Amino acid sequence: MSNLKKKKILLAGLTGLAVFLMLTPSASAASKKKSAGSDPYGINKILKKLMAKKKVSPKQHVQLDIFLKPQNQSQLTDEIYNVNTPGKPNFKQFYTPSSFRAKFGQPAKVTGQYKPYLAKYHLKSHVFSNGLIIKVSGSAKNINKAFSTNLETAKYHDNPVQFSSKKPKMPAELADNVLTVLGITNLNTRAGGLAKKNKKKVKKPEKKYAPSKFSDRYQLQPLYDKGYEGQGQTVGIISFAGFKKSDVTHFWKSEGVNSNPNRISIKKISSPSSQPTNDALSQIETTVDAQQAGAIAPKANVRVYHSNFSDVGMVNVFATAFDENKAGSLSLSWGINEYMTHYLKNNKMLTPVYGQVMNIVMAQGALQGVSTFVASGDSGALGQGIGGKIGPISIPNYSTYAFFPADNPWVTTTGGTTLPFSKKIKKGIKVSVDKERAWGGDYMFNAYAKGRHDLLNNIKLYSYAMAGGGGGISHLYNTPQYQEGVPGVNTFNARQYVSNLMQPRMNPVLVSGTDYGRNYPDVSANADPLTGYDLYDKALGGWQVTGGTSFVAPQFNGATAVMNSGKGQRMGLWNTQIYQLAQDKDKNPFTVMDSTTNNSNLYYTGQPGKIYNQATGLGTVNFEKLYDSYQ
């Protein structure tokens, strides 16, 4: 089974990231200071595995977050349903950042205690509007003094790691309100990027690859005809790489939509990073998101929230967007293999509360009525883990690992499909798809049987065959209430189309089973590069056609802005309504793909007669019908 991001396959798919994950300190008795956070983890258990250790330069700039314990945390989930579910007493009475803080954040009298303490050590601090995050920055020397740490760097299985063998401590009256400290310890896993060689270059944009293919196929055009085009709305793009405005405006102009550069604004959020993500390939992610969201919602503004990727960066970029509260919808086209969260946790290098921290952050958005869309990934159901070691060499294993934060219950996760097409790919070998299906490269396997040598010796064809829309069942987050009892959730049909040796398997048997967790994706649309969309990037050669679920997330982002402009209010968290609508025969706006054949994401298939499957979620959307049915 394959992690296709490691194989560098899709130009605009869900990219791999440098992963920075926090080591959380355990509680300990101290007369003047106590541990800031109560998680039972410590770096000392793996110190013997660290090599090339050295102290962090005293002058090195360090950034971290103090994440405080929320008030009334037990009420968060109920309140999200309360404001997002028709018939509930506070339906559509969305929170503001200040009202969120009043109910769930810490008040100024609590957060105000930290600034004078940190200032004593010449550390700068900033309290987020939600009253939960205190951003801290300064020299390593002063961080060590303020938190009683001893920052060092080392190698962990050849990966650079920053750590402190001493657990962060603060005065007891400050430490008692701390859930965790992010940024003291981080690990760079060197996750892979994406490859430009899989694009199809074209001289100019063609209508068959335009964003209008999405709006026409999924019935968004009738809303345009009513005058709903995203006016008065802002779509937010969460990104961990920069981009060139000129690429976006050139795309918009060529596609016939408003190309005024003033439509785009950028909010940069500083955060630590030891692996740059501003290379040309990473920038494609941001470029695609801005191009697609702005084309689907042609009269909406586009707000890009840009940070370096780290545990601090992921938290702060979302928190900034929610604190600003300008964007009624957001999209994200980045993620990490959920396997890594378990691996690092088991090796005592990951706080088990990082998922909890992100859940709290995303809950703020859901309470404020922000619709957040996250791409499900481009390696199908499959992800790469670590199966063992031969000396210093890690041996990979491939299995159905979920992806983070696509697995988060407070986002709407967008999967991928393949549209009908027929094409000769090499030496007369033909591939064809008769009807829209789950995006999975198994439709190329008959061609593989006829021309095995050609496929295995052509990295482009091989990568297409090993690609698919992400989807599966999370083991980080429990099954959310809106999915409970929905036919197809926590049951599955599957065919193992890829062997452990990364070889296509012909005619695999159908297996069925049950599992429990957050099932994803929620919805799907065309994402296959072979039935893909235009992209313009001057640095990478100009016009090209490619695909990936990175197109789908911003398209749904833009479509939401269109619907918000028509309704005059935010749609909010989709999931609480769409799972109800899918079970209503009269109002159901979804086309389910439930076949068990010619319909996989390289593992999961459809479940005949059931509403949900892990290859395509609830299916594709008729936006006109969704608009009419959605309250």
Key phrases:
Alpha-Beta Plaits; alpha+beta; 2 domains; disordered N terminus; 8-stranded mixed β-sheet
Structure commentary:
A hairpin with a 2-residue loop joins strand 18 (383-390) and strand 19 (393-399). This protein is of the alpha+beta class and 631 residues long. It is built from 20 helices and 33 strands. The radius of gyration is 24 Å and the shape is globular. Helix 10 (245-254) crosses helix 11. Mean pLDDT is 86; it is low at 1-31 and 189-198. It has 2 domains: 4-12 and 195-629, Peptidase S8/S53 domain (Rossmann fold, 3-Layer(aba) Sandwich), CATH 3.40.50; 33-70 and 105-187, Alpha-Beta Plaits (2-Layer Sandwich). The longest helix has 19 residues, at 549-567. The relative contact order is 0.16.
**Helix content, binned percent:** 25-40%
Count of structural domains: 2
How would you describe the shape? globular
Low-confidence stretches: 1-31, 189-198
State mean pLDDT (0 to 100 scale). 86
Query: How much strand content do the residues show?
Result: 15-25%
Report the biggest beta sheet as strand number plus sense, adding barrel if it closes.
8 strands, mixed
CATH superfamily of the largest domain: Peptidase S8/S53 domain
Kindly name the structural category.
alpha+beta
Under CATH at level 1, the class of the largest domain stands as: Alpha Beta
Count the strands?
33
CATH architecture descriptor name of the largest domain: 3-Layer(aba) Sandwich
- CATH fold category name of the largest domain: Rossmann fold
What's the tally of helices?
20
Q: What's the gyration radius in Å?
A: 24 Å
State the end-to-end distance.
42 Å
